[in-house]
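Lecture 7 notes: from sequence to structure.

We start with a single chain of 315 residues. Read the sequence below before looking at the structure.
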Amino acid sequence: MELGRPNLEEFASTLIDLAQTDRDLLIVTGDSRGSGKLWPFAKAYPQQVVEVGIAEQNLVGIAAGLASTGKRVFAVSPACFLTARGLEQIKNDVAYSDNPVKLVGISAGVSYGALGSTHHSLHDYAVLRAINNLDIVAPADNFETREAIKAAATHPRPIYLRFGKKPMPHLHAPDTTFNIGKALTIQDGNDVTFIAIGEPVGRALAAAQRLEADGVRCRVISMHTLRPFDTETVLHAARNTSALVTVEEHSVYGGLGEACAATLMEHGIQLPFRIVGIPDEYTVTGSQFEIFDHYGINETGLAQTARQLLQVEPA
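Now the structure, written as tokens:
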């Protein structure tokens, strides 16, 4: 698959485009202008950046205050700290107070690699799903990122956007339409469905292409929005394929997999099903790719998981 640029670069360039005609668009950042690729924005629009330093609670509170005055505020900080240290402010100042802040968690999942568990955000889907009035979006490629930022700028509710660090593959056809809350089917098939979110979508597609060579027809869905959740697409896939695998760069607890499992159970649907993510253990240390490889969040591991569910051997 052809690679584009990291989603954070697409995020930053999209904000620059939007700011050209929107002086109410502000960025509040916690010493993240470099890691968030925001220096070009700060140079072009210095009056539209608020720097609070490494103080996540203050960052969220300031962003909520600005949003309450009608500003369109993107609050940018590493996902691991934004959604842990700033969680009380996210709950009370943003979600419960209905201030439409655009919370941006950067370097999410295991993007920080060997910096280890203190810097991993394997909890953010779970904790934020438990808070009412907060939408959750994790784009899988540059197209989804660009469209998600454009939609978030005028989104009437609080929203959390999650980004990693690596260059992203191009996944979608030119005529694709993006809507918050509506999953995108990248490839159709009726043997096994991969439902993935964020960076693992590209790995699910690579696994599907490997399985196609063995005659296994795969459906690949980018569930870029975890809330509002596209129940209809999950049910349609489950009713029209023989097995379902969810893939996420997150704990197996509280994220995409459990959302899909609950949907299937509530509608009385039974089929071979597997959640692929980070298990309940001390996470191994290594680069993002090494961690993915260890836990089977890669082409080989996902293809093997699908074969196990379908009970087929490699050709």
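DSSP finds twelve helices and 14 strands in the chain. Keep this in mind for problem set 3.
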